[in-house]
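Why do we bother with holo predictions? Because pocket geometry can differ from the apo form. Keep that in mind while you read this record for DQA.
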Amino acid sequence: MRILVVHGPNLNMLGKREPAVYGLKTLAEIDALVNRRAGELGVEVTAFQSNGEGDLVGFLQDNDDADGLIVNPGALTHYGLSLRDAIASFAKPTVEVHLSNVYAREEFRHTSVIAPVALGQISGFGWRSYLAALDILVDVLKGGRQ
Ligand code: DQA
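The structure, written out:
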């Protein structure tokens, strides 16, 4: 079982970027934690970050044999329609994650164009959002949803 972990714009700056909002861990540290948990769960993860929406779309197209997706679309959450369409086309169980609680922030962050093509969303638990998403997604993929 292979799961894609996709990070959108500005998430390469984690650790330095608004640490009071996004925490102190770098993206590499988060990916390492996700990888370790994936190992415990017996699944493979492929992580990818880009600041460009087209690169994210291309990554999903190139990896359409994967079994599921964890995506933090960054600001593309709120307007990234080509990313949304790529996730719809990928058509595998998808969990949208956010480090911050987007609903406790500015109004423009309260709308997600990604949520309708995701199974669900985890928002507000910092790096733990990714680990929660992985646990849930693997459980779903192993047939634990019902
Ligand atoms: C974010 C929330 C978005 O609104 C923001 O643009 C980000 C990060 C989060 O993880 O909390 O870049 O997706």
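The first helix runs from residue 19 to 22.
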